Amino acid sequence: MKHDVFELRPGRTPLLISMPHVGREIPADQHDRYVPRALGSEDTDWHLEKLYAPIAEELGAGLLIPRYSRYLIDLNRPPEDTPMYPGASNTELCPTRFFTGEPLYRDGQAPDADEKQRRIETYWAPYHQALQGELQRLRQVHGQALLFEAHSIRSELPWLFEGRLPDLNIGTVDGQSAKQITRQAMEIVLSSQDAFSWVVDGRFKGGYITRQYGRPSLGQQAVQLEMCYRCYMTEGELGFTGYELDDACVGRIRPLLTMLLQAYLMANPSRTSAA
């Protein structure tokens, strides 16, 4: 299903992989608002569609992929724009700064309340309507829905967090968005390898989508993975936008991601067999 602001590729299992930050486009009529650097969309979750698509095909998972950049509107923030992590630096529903802290917009060009509302209605709401609708369909067909929030980020971003992140950062909102058996299954997979460092419910516990749609009591779970760029591509310098997939890195991380998602499915057997 193709919509103007997203693409939904339904799968044949209860698993849906959402990638709310892979979009890179900024509409032409908005370009003049931004500083030139912003048009490169450097804080994108680069290449995740390419990384996860073969896994989704193998496991029968669905994919939900947005078109537009998080610089236009962040699909993983609440419409009320309340902070995800109180007391820390946060990016907004309509971000005004790069992850390095510098302004995204030219002086006086940041969106006002009316423009933010327009962006919610035009870009944010359709994505969430599709997400909610697909999760409902999965519950009807399979008796449950398993949402996996795929994200990636630079290893070091002093404006957002101290130090260097572990390679793989699983978030379950401290166990509220997923069943204990799901969390345990993923921990077993991660602890069985030593190529990548990892943490569960550390700095990144889950964004708005994980918190909003993870409802284990209703047969709907959500798990977020915030993965460092270095796991699958050339990370480069801050402000550098020429990120490229690293085939050797992809060859190491993709099997582990496949195992994580297999564990998610196996820990939560469907009431129906895959078609």
Describe this entry's structure for a reader.
Helices cover 29% and strands 15% of the residues. The chain has 275 residues and is α/β, with parallel strands linked by helices. The chain has one domain (6-266): Zn-dependent exopeptidases (Aminopeptidase, 3-Layer(aba) Sandwich), CATH 3.40.630.40. The strands form 2 sheets. Strands 1-3-2-4-7-5-6 form a 7-stranded mixed beta sheet, with helices on both faces. A two-stranded antiparallel sheet has the order 8-9. α1 (48-59) links the parallel β2 (15-18) and β3 (62-66). The mean pLDDT is 93.
Defining traits:
275 residues; alpha/beta; Aminopeptidase; 7-stranded mixed beta sheet; two-stranded antiparallel sheet; 9 strands
Give me the secondary-structure topology.
Blueprint: E1 6-9, E2 15-18, H1 48-59, E3 62-66, H2 113-142, E4 145-153, E5 168-171, H3 180-191, E6 198-200, H4 208-213, E7 220-228, E8 233-234, E9 244-245, H5 247-266
Parallel strand pairs: 2-3, 2-4, 4-7, 5-6
Antiparallel strand pairs: 1-3, 5-7, 8-9
Helix pairs in contact: 1-5, 3-5
